[in-house]
Amino acid sequence: MILRLRGVEHAYRRTVALRGVSLAVEPEEVVAVTGPSGCGKSTLLHVAAGILRPQAGAVTLLDQDLVTLDDAERARLRRRNVGVVLQFGQLVPDLSALENVALPLLLERHDRGAALTAAREWLERAGVGDERDTLAAELSGGQAQRVAVARALVTGPSIVFADEPTGSLDSTGGEALLALLLAAARERGAALVIVTHDNVVAAHADREVRLRDGHVEAEAVLR
Ligand SMILES: Nc1ncnc2c1ncn2[C@@H]1O[C@H](COP(=O)(O)OP(=O)(O)OP(=O)(O)O)[C@@H](O)[C@H]1O
Prior knowledge:
Keywords: ATP-binding, Nucleotide-binding, Transport. With 223 residues, the protein is of the alpha/beta class. It has helices spanning 41-48, 71-81, 97-107, 112-125, 141-153, 171-188, 199-202; strands at residues 3-12, 15-25, 30-34, 56-61, 64-65, 82-85, 159-163, 191-195, 207-212, 215-221.
């Protein structure tokens, strides 16, 4: 088991987003988290990736108890072993696309030349090699999404979380980016958790977990 959530609850002021969610993800498994807008998908992804500490319940990611790790320890775990593609604001606006992708490696004190080479390769694979010197603030929504995927994959994570990773792309671009995420996960033997409202994206998963009003409404094994 690479990820396990048990009885996770979370509320923002008066809005209850998660009401007792349990979920387990195996190594190499591709899981799609689906459900109507506002049902708690993004909150679940933030909790599972250690970005948000839930108000109740247990979260174990890569054998680490996320509820007891402090912010710095959770950030370190994410940088080393977890890839995260968020919906908004994930890139550093004043850095170029290349610098953004190299950043997780540089923060882990990798050799600068090797980090930039790896970043260049992932930008190429994500279809944004030509944008490497563009400031993140000047990228289109779709370009930024591709750069964010490159940044999530560059460290060779054991698990990748992606929140609507194809949301800003047309269907061809979305399929290409999804194919990249699936291929990178397969190459590495990584698990992939994708939040999506797109049935085409969900159909590529091994399992679909459908949320409704903050709880798991249904699970379906797809392959
Ligand atoms: N930072 C926040 N502050 C207050 N309420 C929030 C915040 N983030 C989410 N919520 C609320 O929590 C509930 C769950 O939101 P969440 O973003 O997890 O749902 P979602 O299924 O990802 O939605 P969507 O598909 O529209 O992105 C919603 O009612 C939302 O309005």
